[in-house]
Amino acid sequence: MTTIERRPPLKPGEPAPDFTLPAIDRPGTVSLADYRGRSPVLLAIFRGLYCPLCRRAIAQLGLSRPKLQEAGVESLGIIATKPEHARLYFQFRPTRLPLAADPDMTTHHAYGLPMPALTRELTQALEPLRFNPTGELPEPLPLLEAVQALDRLHGFEPTENYRQEAQRQFPQLAGEFLVDRDGIVRWVYIETAEAGWAGLGKFPTERDLLAVARAVEER
Length: 219
Fold this sequence. Notes:
single chain, alpha/beta, Glutaredoxin, 7 helices, disordered N terminus
C-alpha cells in the first residue's frame, strides 16, 4: 500500500509530540502540556467533521468520558476541521468531549497517522468492501453509499466547505493515543491497522478504553 511520506506512527514508550491548537468547546487554546504532571490523557485524532464515522466516534467518546475520568484519565478529541466550522456544528450537537481544531492536520503528521495515496489500487481494494461500522444501517453498504446514508440518518448536510475538506483529507486515517502524565505514549490504536480497510471507521469500545486506562493508572 503506497503511503504519503511522513514519520511512522508513534509507539508505546515514545514521547508524545506537544501541540497547541484552538479549543472548540471554549475560548483560547489547548495543548498537551496542559495535562503534563496532572493526568494521563486519551488523545483521539480524527478526520474532519465531513466524516460520519468520526462524528459518531466523537459522540461515543463524549459519553465514555466520565467513566474514563473515574479511571483517572482525561480525554481530548482533535478534529481536522476549521475552528469556526467545528464550533458551529457543536453548538447544535454538543458533546462532553473537550475538542481542539487542527484543519492542517499537524498532529496527524506529528503522531504518524498514515495517509495512503489515493491510487487505483486503493480504489479497487475498497470497491468490494461493505461498511456498517457503527451498526446504524440496516445492512452494510459500499463506502460512499454508507457515508451518504449515515449523513441522511444524522441529518447532516455537507456544505461546500466540508466537501473540500473531504477531497483534501481522504484517505487520512484516524487514531487514538494514551499519553501518561509524563508525556510518554503508553498505548496506540491506528484505524485499519489490524483489520485492513475492512476496519475503516471502527474504533475501540468503551470497555477497551477503560481496560487501557486502568492498566496505565496501575503502573
